[in-house]
Amino acid sequence: MKFFETSKHHSFKKSTYITLRWIGIIGQLIAVNFVYFVLNFKFDFITSNLIILIGIISNFYLIFIYKKTQLSDRSAFIFLVIDILQLAILLYLSGGIINPFVIFIIIPSVFSSSNLSFTTNSLLVLLTSVSIIFLTFYSTDLPSPLGDHFHVSPYYYYSIPIALIIALVFLNYFAMTFGTQSRLRKEALTKMEEVMAKEHELLSLGGQAAAAAHSLGTPLSTIKIITQELLKQFEGNKDVEKDINLLSSQVERCNEILKKLSLNPDEEDEFIDKDISIRDYLNEILNSFKEISTKKFIFNFDQDSNSKKIVKSIEIVYGLRNFIGNANKFSDDNVFINLKSDSEFTEISVEDDGPGYPKDILSKIGEPYLKSNNPQDKSKTGLGLGLFIGKTLLEKNFASVICRNSKTRSGAEVIIKWRNKDLFNIQ
Fold first, then answer.
1. Are residues 102 and 232 in the same domain?
2. Are 122 and 88 in contact (CB under 8 A)?
């Protein structure tokens, strides 16, 4: 277990921190010099200014030497410790817990609590609490120039550190909770924007498909008419008739494909017409590929896999089809489908024994119109639409999708995973 967090969420902007430190340093200089020269309170003036100098030097270090724009969890902890100890020493030299400025010792910890990890915040709260307790019992007197002595009840005196520690814990808890909720809202908004962007891409592709179907309909009809005329013209010529019939069948195939592009899949696709288990779901999809492919499909599943039925979802069918079809296209001989399903999760992995994903596109998988820059890759001619559509449709239906190169075989691997509470509640 790492002591400090390295997440991007556990850091804060360096420039903001530097500005706040300058405000604190200037405030300390004004307070120390005003009290000493104007109000004539006698305390260790030179040592106090040397302590403030440490803060100035550390701030210049942040400006000129520390090059990163964000303070990491570890770096922030070190500089905040410096701030707390600096304030504690200044307070020790100027009256301790009865110094009116003692409230400022809780600021560094509270300031950081919404941005740093729980462990770091806990350590800073602990250090601040120890400093407050120390200042309660140990400090240098701050004699008044008028010789007055401020006497208070012990109950009142000891209530000051108690109040400070309670305020410290409460404010840290509030800031940490607020920071966590703020990050969650930001992540949710980012995710929603990603989903909307993908929806836009899908709508755009749907529009392009409909336009293609409309535009190609007329020339294909013309070709069909011409083939019929050619059949009449070359009647009796077996070789020519064979070629014309092949051309005619391919035109008919194109017409069927374009027809499907222009139809609503929810209404026209009868591939799955009932609610079935995820195992039967995959069997139906694989059987459709076995009819048209020469590749071997190896389906492995746990014997105790969850057999609960799920609602028909054309989007899931199309998503799985795209990934299995991609594996079929790029495999050498075999496509491996593995199903694991228990009481909590359902996971499907699709692997092939092909060349795998090109390294230059691994980080971009899921983007439309994707292709490799490597001329040796078979996938160079692919547009990446299958991966994009499959990933988008499945993620839309609460799945997490990971595309990577297989760790056990030479080819590519896609891992699709649902929480059962999401999968079995799809409407």
1. no
2. no
- If asked whether residues 240 and 303 sit together in one domain, one would say no
Residue 166 falls inside a structural domain? no
- For each of the chain's 427 residues, which pLDDT tens digit applies? 455 666 555 677 899 899 999 999 999 999 999 988 988 888 889 999 999 999 999 999 999 999 888 888 889 999 999 999 999 999 999 889 988 899 999 999 998 888 888 899 999 999 999 999 999 999 988 766 655 555 667 777 889 999 999 999 999 999 888 888 877 777 766 766 666 666 666 655 655 566 666 667 778 878 888 888 888 888 888 888 888 888 888 888 777 766 665 554 444 444 455 677 888 888 888 887 886 788 999 999 876 666 778 877 777 888 888 899 889 888 999 999 999 988 888 999 999 999 888 887 777 776 665 666 665 554 444 546 678 778 888 888 889 999 999 888 889 999 999 988 888 877 6
Q: Which residue has tokens 């300058």?
A: 22
Helices (H), 34-103: 45-64, 73-92
Strands 334-341 and 345-352, by their bridges, are antiparallel
Give residue 33's domain range: 12-151
User: 394: closest CA among 314, 325, 328, 329?
Assistant: 314
Burial of 248 (0-12, 13-18, 19+ CB in 10 A): middle
Q: Which two tokens stand for residue 125?
A: 């709260």
Domain shared by 280 and 397, yes or no: yes
Question: Can you state the percent helix, strand and coil of the chain, rounding each to 5?
Answer: 60, 10, 30
Q: Among candidates 313, 307, 287, 314, which has minimal Cα distance to 299?
A: 287
Buried b (16+ CB within 10 A) or exposed e, 140-179: eebeeeeeeeeeeeeeeeeebbeebbeebeebbeebbeeb
How far lies 295's CA from each of 53, 80, 268, 416, in Å?
A: 74, 62, 28, 22
Length of the chain: 427
Q: Where a domain ends, among 216, 249, 268?
A: 268
